[in-house]
């Protein structure tokens, strides 16, 4: 069998070498919406033992235009436990003629630090072969050998919008005797072909058209098919583990990755004692959390066991920085020193909901947070931001589950679920209308939930940058003067608020002596494509509610010609109400827009678009003032 496999690999490589890369041979359906076409992609994994994995990768992509140049880059990551062998890169012209070749010496060698890590174990070889003549094809072939067998993880043929795939294969040759679980996630985009012969499993996809991004489309990982793999026994940085179930994996995770870096040193114990903790468990957790925030800053440190083990809590205490793993574990250790249990929790942080499968243990996730059970509630802590509110998770961490790592295994726990009214923009405004079409207004804004998340960025801006950001937000107004006061981040309640004073021109239109103005000056206009050929499902990634109250003070000598009728709309996507009342010659407008979280099939997009057009139309209701 071994001789047959070696012969099969050799024949495969010869076949790949013989591939014709003439761009004119690309099927027409793969050119539509594509900036690049994967002509062939072959990943060949050979699992020899619990600590030996050989990988061969061949990838050929035709770049159709300048927007596709990003897909020509060849990236080869490695670390002390992953060795890079043969490397060959070839560039072909439009006719499929070989024009240039590269070898390992032509690559640049960098630390693999996507977020500017201070130091890392991981490195990456980078080559950016490009051509000024389109189309051109870049073909890369390289081999790696690693003892980190846990990284036999998934086969996903499409990784980006605007890229089509002619053929993609993934082969696993398992001579280790270790059972490998597989999980297939099908999507309408492409059909999987799968075969198993002895110890060889082969998976392939063909003829996958490019996906064109559309408004409100979910994450690309949700749209494309994939096959996941999970070896029941594995090695990570020399440490062997068991992944037959989540509990076995969790015990290994706690023993090998978390516990060794969680020592409560005398210095850490002194830190906690100096806080003079009092009150309920929640009060104590808040005091420690805000202490940790004020002391530390976020820096990616991809060091440690495969980038998965946090740096020691004692190091974070001394240096005052760390990544999500390090800061979460430091916070956990501080709580432990105070006698409070908490659990290091791994999560998929993403706009679209990605959850862990309770029946498919696998080393995965992209972020770490902390779960703190108390007698009244479970407290959730996001530890990477100095500005983040206590017991507040961003909307990219809601509505999903986490792997809570405990001494006796992993517990899969659901994170909180937002209600729209917990993710609110609340606005109270008093607007003076001028006879010349101008307005002067004093407005109070307050944001919570997911809308708190999207406004945190204001706290990192200078005064003039804040003013410019808000001018851009209210671009529908011809702003003459704008001032922002009392910008405050309430980290206890998870709210951001500020006062906005502005003057704007051309708000009202003059018709003879009368004035004509829209009822809703403050909102971010949302424009959605009305393309009848919707291809993708659409998603509202977090629920929210906008609650606006506006008081209009009109010029002396004017009266309201007519007050519009109040109205409301209710759909599965959300609801809208707008009410008009007059009091003492003033107009009071109350408007509430509620959007539900949801992932909807493409067939419902027209209904959603109709709903948003209706709300926009009512926001644009005009009021007529008549000169007495």
Can you put this structure into words, describing what you see?
This protein has 628 residues and is an alpha+beta fold. The chain is built from eleven helices and 37 strands. The chain has an eight-stranded mixed β-sheet. An eight-stranded mixed β-sheet has the order 26-27-25-24-31-35-34-33. The N and C termini lie far apart (98 Å).
Strand order of the largest sheet: 5-4-8-2-1-10-13-12
User: Could you tell me the mean pLDDT?
Assistant: 91
How would a textbook summarize the main sheet? 8 strands, mixed
What is the percentage of strand-forming residues? 35-45%
| Number of E strands | 37
User: Runs with pLDDT <50, length 5+?
Assistant: 1-18, 114-118
Termini gap: 98 Å
List the helices and strands and how they pair.
Layout: H1 2-17, H2 28-31, E1 36-49, E2 52-63, E3 74-78, E4 82-92, E5 98-102, E6 108-111, E7 123-127, E8 136-146, E9 154-155, E10 163-174, E11 180-185, E12 193-197, E13 200-208, H3 220-223, E14 226-231, E15 233-236, E16 239-242, H4 246-258, H5 266-273, H6 281-295, E17 297-298, H7 313-319, E18 321-322, H8 324-337, E19 343-347, E20 367-373, E21 378-381, E22 401-406, E23 409-414, E24 424-433, E25 439-448, H9 449-455, H10 463-473, E26 478-490, E27 495-505, E28 509-511, E29 514-518, E30 538-540, E31 544-553, E32 558-560, E33 567-571, E34 574-583, E35 586-595, E36 598-600, H11 605-619, E37 622-627
Parallel strand pairs: 1-10, 17-18, 24-31
Antiparallel strand pairs: 1-2, 2-8, 3-7, 4-5, 4-8, 6-7, 9-14, 10-13, 11-14, 12-13, 15-16, 19-20, 19-22, 20-21, 22-23, 24-25, 25-27, 26-27, 28-29, 29-37, 30-36, 31-35, 32-37, 33-34, 34-35
Helix pairs in contact: 5-8, 6-8, 7-8
């Amino acid at each position: 069998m071994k001789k047959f496999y070696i012969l099969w690999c050799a024949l495969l490589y010869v076949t790949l070498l013989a591939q014709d890369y003439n761009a004119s041979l690309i099927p027409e359906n793969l050119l539509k919406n594509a900036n690049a076409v994967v002509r062939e992609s072959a990943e060949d994994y050979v699992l020899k033992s619990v600590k030996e994995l050989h990988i061969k990768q061949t990838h050929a992509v035709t770049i159709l235009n300048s927007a596709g140049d990003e897909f020509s880059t060849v990236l080869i990551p490695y670390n002390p436990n992953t060795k890079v062998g043969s490397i060959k890169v070839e560039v072909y012209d439009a006719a499929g003629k070989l024009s240039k070749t590269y070898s390992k010496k032509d690559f640049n060698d960098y630390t693999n630090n996507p977020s500017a890590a201070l130091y890392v174990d991981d490195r990456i070889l980078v080559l950016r072969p490009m051509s000024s003549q389109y189309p051109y094809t870049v073909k890369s072939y390289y081999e790696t050998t690693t003892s980190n067998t846990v990284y036999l993880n998934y086969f996903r043929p499409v990784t980006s919008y605007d890229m089509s795939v002619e053929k993609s294969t993934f082969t696993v040759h398992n001579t280790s005797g270790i059972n490998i679980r597989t999980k297939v996630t099908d999507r309408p985009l492409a059909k999987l072909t799968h075969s198993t012969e002895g110890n060889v499993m082969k998976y392939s996809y063909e003829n996958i058209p490019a996906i064109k991004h559309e408004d409100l489309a979910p994450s690309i990982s949700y749209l494309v098919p994939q096959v996941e793999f999970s070896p029941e026994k594995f090695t990570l940085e020399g440490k062997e583990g068991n992944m037959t179930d989540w509990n076995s994996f969790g015990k290994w995770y706690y023993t090998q990755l978390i516990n060794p870096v969680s020592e409560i040193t005398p210095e850490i114990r002194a830190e906690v004692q100096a806080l003079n903790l009092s009150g309920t468990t929640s009060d104590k957790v808040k005091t420690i959390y805000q202490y940790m925030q004020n002391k530390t800053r976020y820096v990616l440190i991809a060091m440690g066991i495969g980038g998965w083990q946090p740096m020691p809590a004692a190091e974070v205490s001394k240096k005052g920085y760390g990544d999500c793993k390090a800061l979460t574990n430091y916070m956990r250790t501080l709580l432990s020193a105070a006698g409070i249990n908490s659990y290091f929790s791994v999560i998929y942080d993403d706009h679209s909901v990605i959850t862990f499968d309770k029946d498919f243990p696998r080393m995965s996730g992209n972020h770490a947070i902390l779960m703190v059970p108390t007698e009244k509630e479970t407290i959730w802590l996001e530890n990477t931001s100095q500005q983040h509110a206590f017991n507040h998770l961003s909307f990219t961490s809601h509505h999903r589950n986490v792997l809570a790592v405990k001494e006796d295994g992993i517990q899969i726990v659901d994170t909180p679920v937002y209600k729209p009214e917990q993710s609110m923009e609340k606005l109270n405004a008093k607007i003076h209308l001028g006879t010349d079409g101008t307005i002067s207004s004093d407005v109070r804004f307050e944001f919570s939930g997911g809308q708190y998340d999207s406004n945190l960025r204001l706290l990192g801006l200078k005064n003039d940058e804040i003013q410019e950001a808000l001018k851009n937000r209210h671009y529908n107004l011809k702003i003459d003067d704008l001032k922002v006061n009392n910008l405050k981040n309430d980290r206890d309640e998870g709210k951001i608020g500020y006062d906005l004073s502005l003057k704007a021109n051309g708000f009202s239109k003059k018709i003879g002596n009368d004035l004509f103005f829209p009822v809703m000056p403050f909102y971010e206009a949302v424009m959605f494509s009305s393309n009848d050929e919707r291809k993708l499902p659409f998603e509202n990634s977090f629920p929210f509610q906008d609650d606006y109250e506006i008081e209009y003070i009109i010029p002396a000598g004017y009266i309201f010609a007519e007050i519009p009728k109040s109205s409301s709309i209710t759909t599965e996507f959300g609801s809208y109400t707008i009410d008009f009342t007059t009091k003492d010659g003033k107009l009071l407008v109350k408007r509430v827009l509620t959007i539900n979280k949801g992932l909807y099939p493409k067939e419902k997009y027209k209904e959603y678009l109709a709903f948003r057009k209706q709300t926009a139309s009512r926001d644009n209701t005009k009021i007529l003032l008549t000169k007495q």
